[in-house]
Amino acid sequence: MPEKYKNLLFDLDGTIIDPKEGITTSIQYALKKLGAEKIPSSDELTWGIGPSLVHSFPKLFGKEDKELAQKCVEYYREYFSKKGIFQCFLYDGIKDILTELSTSSKLFLATSKPGIFALQILELFELKHLFTGVYGSEFDGRFMNKADLIAHLLKIEKLNVSECLMIGDRKHDIIGAKVNNMESCGVLWGYGSRKELSEAGVSFLVEKPEGLLKLK
Questions:
Q1: In this structure, are 99 and 79 located in the same domain?
Q2: 140 in catalytic set
Q3: What is the value of pTM for the model shown?
């Protein structure tokens, strides 16, 4: 595994935290508010962990309906901002690993989750001080696309892309990195499969959190 990365860009959901309960419960709440007849179980909604909500919700309706998707996002955030945001937990050992990595590389958060929510979660788990920068989407829809978010981060931080690595658990992280000519590390403890990450063109894979220490 390369040891040249001065800057490590981390996804949040499925990489640092397991957000399953908070995200799936928020989706269920939104569907109930919209009067859905059938509410999928939590396990049936794990595909919604990772990609931006605006792109996820049309899958529930079987059609592209921007107005309906936006209404669903609003209801989702209504629940998530008050309860769902706290229904998550850190993956075992990840806090110590991030602490260790921060001694030799700059850490940045690059998540499709709204930045204000991401900051609250980092503060909840006392991780914020480990990150040089925290980047997330905006409520108006900007930077929901991971490639756009990474490009924005690179521009603001004035980083050399050859010294950066994107670390995440879903294809959107890998594709976002590729669009920006950045190498990527796929983690296999999250919600993306080995097949999904490999087909997206991941640079290399890590099976357990402690494997990230080889980046040091």
A1: no
A2: no
A3: 0.92
